[in-house]
């Protein structure tokens, strides 16, 4: 039996605090452990895949936090139900990750995984028809609270973050699972390019901010 979720009107979308990062990492791990891009990047066929992925997600969240990038969560009371990580348009974050992030990622995820993570971001950015935009790096709903409309509520919160940033022209995301495309289509994301990374193909989608 699934845990109950309050009405969507009671759900709060707020920026995460540092004490929320551990739960956020767990939610993201469960969402991405079977994602074809991450199983390829972090070599799921080799021993220690789950450990490498957990470490990579933890380092990504820490890097987002240190760089003061938007990490948005949906809360039902004190329970964190969903999370999204964005890179702001003016961040020196992107592929030029801080040296300590690169070092820690190398130590935990390995050289191949670190290079692939950076390559993915550079290639996605190259396909987006905008100069200044947000990048949606992660989005996930806790597996126990799915199918309650929280994903669309989270997309709405992301839209608000983008709308409030005068510099941003919109938000981009790289989609590697076909069934996820309609989810983004429903929020006016359009396919702007196709991309192959190693053995994985996907589509870059972009939601342009309303004029």
UniProtKB/TrEMBL annotation:
SUPFAM superfamilies: Acyl-CoA N-acyltransferases (Nat). This is GCN5 family acetyltransferase. Residues 80-170 form the N-acetyltransferase domain. It comes from Alteromonas stellipolaris. It comes from the Bacteria.
